[in-house]
Amino acid sequence: MNARTTLAVAGRVLIQLRRDRRTSAMLLVLPCAVMTLLWWMFEDLPGAGFSALAPALLALIPFIVMFLVTSVTTLRERTSGTLERLLAMPLGKGDFLGGYALAFGAVATVQSALAVGVSTLFLDLDVAGPTWLLLVVAVLDAVLGSALGLFVSAFARTEFQAVQFMPALVVPQILLCGLFVDRSVLPGFLEVISNCLPLSYAVDAMTKVSEDSDPQILGDLGLVGGFAVAALVLGALTLRRQSE
Amino acid sequence: MMNKGVDVTSLRVVRGGRLVLDDLTFEVAAGQVTGLLGPSGCGKSTLMRAIVGVQRITAGTVRVFGEPAGSASLRRRIGYVTQAPSVYDDLTVAENLAFFARVLGVGADRVEECVRLVDLVEQRSQVVGRLSGGQRSRVSLAVAMLGDPALIVLDEPTVGLDPVLRKDLWETFHRLAAEGAAVFVSSHVMDEANRCDRLLLMRDGRVIADDSPAALLERTGAADIETAFLDIVAAAEVDR
């Protein structure tokens, strides 16, 4: 890894995002809007509906958004020839991936800070544990989404195909992460699958932080991080300096 | 003996089960502009990709400055311009160049030099996606020049450019060659052949002629390179 080239890639990705005003605005505003919608749905209902579901949603949003953004951006790099050009230059694959992870990690930090801020300050989200831990989980989650998006971009030839990986890879994780049915009461086979999916641990970590004043989430974070690193390594394998 | 930039021996490339390059052997000398001419689809781009080191080769060897094509040590010394401009459409001219300059580790002064080299000083703050096709390929060319490369590989760099700019670019190629670089340019426009010091004529994955333009004309007795190309193709058909 080389700091100069990694930062060059990260800086460039951020300039590209900044130039795309509509995408930037949606990245920052939509998560807050979705949290507000969720709060509103439960406003007239008894019980802790919003506070029970919000942590899971705070884990889902950065994961989904970064998955989509990264898979489309890296697909563009692959099809426009810029990736081939970069790989013909003295640029390590790790620098390329690290640059993307850094840029999208930074965006995810701002995005999640806004969503967490709106949820805790204006929407009565009760967080028993330290609020900043919600941010840590969200950022790690975003990096996981980026890593997976980067990996699947190798298997898509068009942006249409890239977007279709969302129902294939992301939706099953959402269904099985414990948001709809508690993971422990899923049918045995599905519980095993749920145990193998990274998003389950991200949602677990978020839930623990919001419910527990002294949350033990290192294990969950380690698993999410491990999946992210594995996806990045697989993604690196799909960056070939030579084509067949 | 001439200084070898690129040394290709018995190169064969099979892509997707199709033989694209069939037993090519030739050299590209440093200090010269070598032209690669042939019809679309004859394998020019694949050959260029093999030299740059991004195309896996099936058999034979490709050496650049004595090292196998694609070696890490060569990455700093090769400037490669693909047919489609490989630059970021959503960045400005200057931002594109500044980014690639940081990757290559060259200074900001080099960015300004390259902007001037391709005559885009007025457009430097414009987003590349809003430039004309010719201007975009010049951005791509400028990126290839950033590292002051010793081997410059240009895949159809003058397509869609106006005649004045084409002439300017050819002068630039010759100036770079005069400074010692090996310049390898492909084209399917035969009238660009006369601007090369040496010509490789390609057809169906084979090199059918490798000579200076003057020698080619003399050998075939043709009035122009296009006719010479047709004569050589016809002679090769008879041989078969």
Automatic annotation (TrEMBL), chain A:
* Record-annotated membrane-spanning stretches: 25-42, 48-75, 96-120, 132-155, 162-181, 217-239
Q: Which GO terms describe its cellular component?
A: ATP-binding cassette (ABC) transporter complex
Can you tell me which family this protein belongs to?
A: Belongs to the ABC-2 integral membrane protein family.
One of the record's GO molecular function terms? ABC-type transporter activity
Q: Which PANTHER family match?
A: MEMBRANE COMPONENT OF ABC TRANSPORTER YHHJ-RELATED, TRANSPORT PERMEASE PROTEIN
From which organism does this entry originate?
Nocardioides marmoriginsengisoli
Its name, as the record gives it, is Transport permease protein
**Annotated ranges, domain ABC transmembrane type-2:** 22-242
Record keywords, A-Z = Antibiotic resistance, Cell membrane, Membrane, Transmembrane, Transmembrane helix, Transport
Keyword Transmembrane helix attached: yes
Which residues, if any, are the signal sequence?
none
Task: Report the subcellular localization.
Answer: Cell membrane
Q: Which domain of life is it from?
A: Bacteria
Q: Recite the lineage of the species.
A: Bacteria, Bacillati, Actinomycetota, Actinomycetes, Propionibacteriales
One Pfam family, short name? ABC2_membrane
Q: How does it sit in the membrane?
A: Multi-pass membrane protein
Q: Which GO terms describe its biological process?
A: response to antibiotic
From TrEMBL, chain B:
**MF-aspect GO terms:** ATP binding; ATP hydrolysis activity
Which CDD domains does this UniProt record tie to the protein?
Answer: ABC_DR_subfamily_A
For this UniProt entry, which residues form the secretion signal?
none
Q: Which domain of life is it from?
A: Bacteria
Q: Cross-referenced SMART domains, in alphabetical order?
A: AAA (SM00382)
Q: Which UniProt keywords apply?
A: ATP-binding, Nucleotide-binding
The segment(s) forming the ABC transporter domain are 6-229
Keyword Iron assigned to the entry: answer is no
Which Pfam family name is an example for this entry? ABC_tran
Know the name of this protein? Answer: ABC transporter ATP-binding protein
